[in-house]
Design goal:
Blueprint lengths: L2 H9 L2 E8 L4 E4 L12 E3 L2 E3 L2 E5 L10 E5 L23 H4 L6 H5 L4
Antiparallel strand pairs: 1-2, 1-6, 3-4, 5-6
């Protein structure tokens, strides 16, 4: 295992272990609520959420646990709309230009050529 991956796994906040049930893709686990970092709990449409990830262990633990659950700390970067610049502004009269809001098709159709 690479050092970078090992460091990443050590930084994970593990909140539960699970055990695969029978021949099904079901995993039973008990979630330790006191380990959930409150700063990563967010609200959406009046309900509280936290992102978790579940992964299969490489080996079954001595307690028969087959899976681990940890807090998913991924935070997507906010998308910024590209402002038209001379590099990404469509050429007048092209299809991309026609699709821009506020383009007057009558002006383009009345061109003398």
């Amino acid at each position: 295992m690479s050092t970078e991956r090992k460091n990443y796994e050590e930084k994970r906040i593990y909140v539960a272990n699970g055990k695969r049930v029978g021949q099904y893709d079901l995993v039973n686990f008990a979630l330790c609520l006191s380990k959930l970092p409150k700063e990563l709990i967010y609200e959406y449409q009046g309900k509280k959420y936290i992102n978790l990830t579940i992964g299969a262990n490489k080996e079954i633990s001595k307690y028969g646990k087959t899976h681990a659950i940890w807090v998913n700390e991924f935070k997507p970067e906010e998308k910024q709309e590209a402002q038209p610049t001379h590099e990404n502004k469509p050429e007048p009269g092209t299809i991309e230009d026609l699709e821009r809001p506020g383009t007057d098709l009558d002006d383009i159709n009345n061109l003398p050529f």
